[in-house]
């Protein structure tokens, strides 16, 4: 293979003339859209482009938890330690890049077959990227704030949480070592379909927070609604952080949901539609980056009362080069946070299984293979190992990123090489901190327009997994309805179990203002668990799947023959009770095929 082929590729899938030819909408002749499977040896150029899309799709999410913790908790008002905040972003980017390399590569642990009688892997071997987990954000915030109230400096408190995270990650190591059959029994397709769907529902809500102006102001607006405070007039507790306006959109500071923010995000969505109608195959494969760049361009040429939407100060303040350990936090242990952290690792376990299942679906791979079981096991192990490494790298725990399944679905690229390229871009963005400065200058509203579209694709992946289930089964429908009722319910309205308007430990579900620090930690963990839809819904699905028996025998009658559905077999029985010669394995259309072949009408009893 020559240098040109290595860089640009060779073959029909890399015919750049066809790839770059614009589409004529509603034309009779359709332009081909190529799918690049898992083992496709993508050329360097296409790998870098596809990887860059994944990096852009996840960068906003992976830098938010450490940035929020460092700025609003460890540093605190008036947020003057910019160097510490920048370092949090650098460490998160480099750590996520290294974790992504590990997860995409899938390395077999030496001597594992001798010890466990089966191969044990680290990594999924899929285009499954990893980044900082949102699940641990509330625990880090509450625990660090509690320690600081006890006189422990913010940096030391953060170090204690890093050590606590490293210890609790051992729980996920234990999950990853469970036998494959037990994993499949506990996490069958109905559970993964529910988990992926609930993940999509939760992520779309996060995308809306970005679109309206930013996650922080979107969530904090409940705590500082001046009209409510003025009209009620009984001294509702408010935060000391001025979060009534959104500050993640350059120097423009408007209330959450302002028309200007909505317009910026809408420009991204509109350009996605234009690309889908008129774009070439190459443009459709790169639609995420192109739409994001268009939204960034619209923001750059716009202003509000003379104030820009692009914060160039982020670029100026960022050092040219940075790396890990330029800031250091002494590793320690904070006992009250152990129980909430263990619960959080259970959440990420369920989340990772759902993510890998969704990745399989969008990568057009079967879930009925040993490779699927190995990838589930390897991804759980990678979650645990990379979270331990994250503590060593002074960053928060890592997990798989579900939103990147939306990128795979839209770009039609599931090649591992795109995953390696994603890791490369993330590390590059972290080392060359000016790149991180450019990324952090993208307005939150523009990111929201992109992420809400990508997150909705995760939801669609969950619906697709449901489509592969036998939804005529009473058992499947009951498990799905029960799990989704609670999961979607608390996602749409989490305040049944959460404290509202900065009133810590006052939720009626479990008032805990006078509790010990340990019980407050337990209470926070339970509250986080119950108010996280994809967590509580998935656990309900797991438990119901283990205790609800299989459907009882059903009978299909066609006059002289009873077709009995027992287990996964369809048995023909005559009216005299004799078993007929024909016994077939059931598939989704077995009964309907029998109906077509019968001269009489068939009904299901």
What order do the helices and strands come in, and which of them pair?
Layout: H1 3-8, H2 16-19, H3 44-75, H4 82-105, E1 107-108, H5 112-116, E2 121-122, E3 130-132, H6 137-149, H7 154-168, H8 170-176, H9 180-186, H10 189-211, H11 215-220, H12 226-232, E4 245-246, E5 254-255, H13 259-278, H14 281-285, H15 287-300, E6 303-304, E7 307-308, H16 313-317, H17 338-362, H18 370-392, E8 398-400, H19 404-411, H20 416-431, H21 433-440, H22 444-467, H23 474-492, H24 517-530, H25 533-547, E9 554-557, E10 561-566, E11 569-574, E12 579-585, H26 590-597, E13 603-604
Antiparallel strand pairs: 1-2, 3-8, 4-5, 6-7, 9-10, 9-13, 10-11, 11-12
Helix pairs in contact: 3-4, 3-6, 3-20, 4-18, 4-20, 6-7, 6-24, 7-17, 7-18, 8-18, 9-18, 10-17, 10-22, 10-23, 10-25, 13-15, 13-22, 15-22, 17-18, 17-19, 17-24, 17-25, 19-22, 20-21, 23-25
């Amino acid at each position: 293979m020559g240098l040109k082929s290595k860089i640009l590729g060779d073959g029909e899938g890399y015919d750049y003339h066809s790839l770059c030819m614009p589409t004529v909408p509603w034309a009779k002749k359709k332009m081909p859209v190529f799918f690049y499977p898992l083992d496709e040896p993508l050329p360097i150029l296409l790998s870098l482009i596809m990887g860059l899309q994944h990096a852009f799709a996840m960068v906003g999410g992976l830098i938010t938890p450490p940035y929020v913790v460092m700025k609003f908790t460890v540093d605190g008002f008036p947020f003057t330690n910019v160097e510490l905040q920048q370092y949090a972003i650098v460490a998160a980017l480099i750590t996520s890049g290294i974790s992504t390399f590990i997860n995409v590569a899938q390395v077999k642990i030496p001597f594992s077959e001798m010890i466990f009688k089966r191969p044990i892997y680290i990594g999924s071997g899929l285009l499954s990227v990893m980044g900082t987990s949102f699940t641990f954000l509330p625990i880090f915030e509450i625990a660090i704030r509690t320690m600081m109230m006890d006189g422990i400096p913010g940096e030391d408190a953060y170090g204690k949480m890093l050590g606590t995270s490293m210890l609790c990650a051992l729980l996920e190591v234990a999950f990853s070592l469970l036998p494959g059959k037990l994993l499949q029994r506990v996490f069958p397709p109905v559970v993964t379909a529910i988990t992926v769907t609930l993940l999509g529902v939760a992520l779309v809500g996060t995308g809306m927070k970005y679109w309206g102006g930013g996650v922080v102001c979107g969530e904090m607006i409940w705590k500082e609604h001046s009209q409510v405070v003025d009209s009620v007039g009984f001294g509702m507790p408010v935060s000391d952080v001025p979060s009534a306006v959104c500050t993640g959109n350059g120097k423009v500071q408007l209330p959450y949901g302002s028309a200007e923010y909505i317009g910026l995000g809408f420009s991204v969505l509109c350009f996605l539609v234009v690309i889908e109608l008129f774009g070439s195959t190459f443009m459709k494969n790169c639609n995420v980056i192109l739409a994001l760049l268009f939204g960034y361009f619209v923001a750059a040429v716009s202003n509000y009362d003379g104030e820009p939407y692009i914060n160039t100060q982020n670029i100026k303040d960022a050092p040219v080069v940075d790396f890990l350990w330029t800031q250091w936090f002494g590793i320690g242990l904070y006992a009250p946070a152990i129980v909430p952290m263990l619960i959080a690792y259970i959440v990420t376990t369920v989340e990772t299984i759902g993510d890998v299942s969704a990745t399989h679906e969008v990568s057009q791979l079967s879930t009925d293979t040993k490779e699927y079981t190995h990838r589930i096991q390897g991804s759980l192990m990678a979650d645990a190992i990379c979270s331990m490494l994250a503590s060593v790298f002074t960053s928060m725990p890592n997990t798989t990123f579900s939103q990147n399944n939306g990128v795979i679905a839209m770009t039609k690229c599931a090649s591992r090489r795109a995953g390696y390229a994603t890791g490369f871009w993330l590390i590059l963005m972290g080392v060359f901190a000016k790149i991180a400065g450019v990324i952090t200058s993208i307005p939150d509203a523009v990111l929201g327009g992109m992420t809400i579209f990508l997150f909705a694709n995760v939801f669609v992946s969950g619906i697709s997994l449901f489509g592969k289930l036998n939804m005529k089964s009473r058992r499947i429908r009951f498990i799905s309805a029960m799990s989704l009722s609670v999961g979607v319910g608390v996602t749409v309205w989490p305040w049944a179990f959460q404290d509202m308007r900065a009133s810590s430990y006052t939720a009626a579900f479990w008032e805990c203002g006078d509790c010990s620090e340990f019980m407050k930690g337990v209470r926070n963990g339970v509250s986080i668990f119950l108010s996280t839809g994809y967590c509580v819904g998935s656990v309900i699905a797991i438990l119901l799947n283990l205790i609800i028996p299989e459907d009882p025998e059903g009978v299909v009658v066609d006059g002289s023959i009873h077709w009995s559905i027992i287990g996964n077999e369809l048995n023909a029985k005559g009216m005299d009770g004799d078993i007929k010669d024909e016994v077939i394995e059931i598939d989704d259309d077995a009964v309907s095929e029998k109906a077509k072949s019968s001269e009489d009408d068939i009904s299901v009893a």
